Amino acid sequence: PNTLIDLSRKTDGSQDRAEFAKDVAEGLGQSPKQLSSRYFYDAKGSRLFQQIMALPEYYLTRAEYSLMQQHRSAMVSAFAADGFFHLVDLGAGDAMKTNLLLQELVKQEKPFDYVPMDISGSAMQELGKDLRQEHPEMHVRAVVAEYITGLKWLEQHLNERKVVLFLGSNIGNFEREEGQDFICQIRQHLQPGDLFMLGVDLRKDPGTILAAYNDASGITAAFNMNLLERINRELGGNFDLNGFKHYALYDPQLGVMKSFLVSQRDQEVYLEATQERYSFTAWEAIHTESSHKYTLPQTTEMGRLAGFEFVTSYLDEEGGFADMLFKA
Ligand code: AVI
Asked: Could you give the CA distance from residue 47 to residue 300 in angstroms, rounded to a whole number?
């Protein structure tokens, strides 16, 4: 009972590359330059992100893991209160945290199936394989898709009960308005009584946040730089990787962590895919990622504005990370 549904390719594989090329051309053509963090997650990027999650500075994963360990029994009771449900995990990745809930659901013999969704095909394949070994009885339907395409899956199961997870502070990688909009879209794909659990990284000491995105071992820098490597690999780019450096900064008023790739000199880059040249002046930066940090009231308000009812918040012991439970 274990399937993999690949919704990432449209009519043929080359369209993905065409879309990537178009986005890169657009982002490098504008001022200030930017590239979307959704392109971080090819096979290499997904591997690097797994290493990030294990870094001493990257507190987010540990905090959410420990809060889920502490509250999993209450979470599972809330999820399974009305019988069978689809547990939909948006941006599941390696599902390290969700696995705590899966174990608890199995232990409590609750009826459910698991629908992990992720942009990374390699991550979904590996997760499917791991779950087959660990829980051979569990019904798993892994979906390879971007968020919006993934939500379409929900449309086909409109009248079946759903619990949607959006964990790991993935909401933080949307700009504020886009994040609100995405939560509204999730709500529109649910029926009254369905549940939604949102993992948010809360505001805290700016030094702690900055260190998480600027680790001493340079893994985050490599993760950021992989975007240029990916452009070289897939779009025939000739980025000189020694000509750019990772730079991260946190704005404590806006609550946003921003990552950049900064050109260390005047240089030109050529992309075969677009047959265009892009020029960089010395110290010109490409914005590659935002990671927004929220306050608890901001988070409940986001849910409320989307039409959800706030149920409860589960916090880790340090109060730095929250899983917020909402009801449609
Ligand atoms: C996936 N996302 C929630 C991570 C974050 O914290 O914004 C991605 C990341 N970027 C740098 N380190 C981790």
From this structure: 33
Assess whether the C-beta atom of 179 lies below 6 angstroms from ligand 1: no
- Asked if residue 173 has its Cβ within 6 Å of ligand 1, the reply is yes
| CA atoms of 309 and 177, how far apart (whole Å) | 20
Give the distance, in angstroms, between the CA of residue 61 and the centroid of all CA atoms in the same chain.
12
Would you tell me how many other CB atoms lie within 10 Å of the CB of residue 223? 26
Residue 162, H or E segment? strand 162-166
DSSP string, 82-149: GS-EEEEEET-TT-TTHHHHHHHHHHTT--EEEEEEES-HHHHHHHHHHHHHH-TTS-EEEEE--HHH
Q: How far is the CA of 238 from the centre of ligand 1 (A)?
A: 26
CA gyration radius, the chain: 20
220 lines ligand 1 (CB under 6 A): yes
- From the CB of 93, is ligand 1 less than 6 Å away? no
Beta-carbon contacts of 322 under 8 Å, excluding residues fewer than 6 positions away, are 67, 199, 200, 202, 296, 299, 313, 314, 315, 316
Neighbours of 310 (CB within 10 A): 14
Task: Say which amino acid occupies 155.
Answer: E
Residue nearest to atom 2 of ligand 1 (CA): 170
Tell me which residue has its CA closest to atom 11 in ligand 1. Answer: 213
Residue located nearest, by CA, to atom 1 of ligand 1: 170
The number of the ligand 1 atom at minimal distance from the alpha carbon of 169 is 3
Which strand (E) or helix (H) includes residue 17?
Answer: helix 14-29
83-132: pLDDT as tens digits: 999 999 999 988 989 999 999 999 999 999 999 999 888 889 999 999 99
**The complex's ipTM?**
0.99
pTM: 0.94
Please give the torsion angle defined by the CA atoms of residues 184, 147, 252 and 51, in that order, rounded to the nearest 10 degrees.
Answer: 150
Query: What pLDDT, in 10s, does the model give residues 221-272?
Result: 999 999 999 999 999 999 999 999 999 999 999 999 999 999 999 999 999 9
